[in-house]
Design brief:
five-stranded mixed sheet; 205 residues; alpha+beta; Glutaredoxin; 5 strands
């Protein structure tokens, strides 16, 4: 049964990879959606279109400003494993806007890492295979060994430090308030992608 399940997941991943795009193509898509006041996904509301436009600006900023330390660069550059990093996302997702440019900066340092992007709502089987606490949380990064097709690790929907902040707040208040979500955005801005980089480095060690 376990082997059957692994084979099913491999088939699902393979199908999604055929529909995947590069990070550059994804960035172009989000910019075009912003120009057309639209969004990815089946639900085309003004609110989601506004989030997409906001995220386009966020990603432009992070694409320019995310920095890795020399030690971090060395760890990434020395990884010899040929991998595909497949991310599930949607253009309206606030966490994704802060995280995806950081993943790209890391992947860019090593030709062994092939960074691919798919949309969550167009890849339901893949999303259902990689739920977070039963939810379709994004962004979700799936790390695949290219030689064995084995899923090595996953990351997301948030770096571990942010996950702890979210879990603690939920435990105390029952749900995430708009005020907390604003605080979380400020945390991302202050962190500058470093917590995401640290989590990704652990998967390469």
């Amino acid at each position: 049964m376990e082997t059957l399940q692994v084979n099913m997941i491999n088939d699902i991943i393979s199908d999604s990879l055929e529909k995947s795009m590069t990070y550059t193509q994804y960035r172009t898509l989000v910019s075009e959606l912003t120009e057309n006041n639209s969004t990815t996904g089946p639900e085309k509301t003004e609110a989601l279109a506004n989030y997409t436009a906001l995220n386009d600006r966020r990603m432009k900023r992070w694409d320019k400003t995310v920095k890795l330390s020399e030690d971090a660069k060395t760890i990434v550059e020395n990884s010899n494993r040929k991998m595909t990093w497949l991310v599930l996302t949607e253009s309206w997702c606030g966490d994704a806007a802060h995280i995806m440019p950081v993943i790209n900066k890391v992947a860019d340092l090593n030709d062994n890492i092939d960074y691919k992007v798919v949309l969550r709502d167009e890849n339901e089987a893949l999303m259902n295979a990689f739920l977070t606490n039963g939810g379709k949380s994004i962004p979700k990064l799936i790390m695949i060994d290219n030689d064995s097709n084995e899923v090595i690790d996953t990351f997301g929907p948030r770096p571990s430090v942010a996950t702890e902040l979210v879990n603690n707040y939920k435990a105390e208040h029952g749900q995430l308030t708009p005020e907390f979500k604003e605080d979380l955005q400020r945390w991302y801005n202050k962190d500058k992608g470093q917590s995401t980089i640290e989590d990704l480095l652990k998967t390469l060690a």
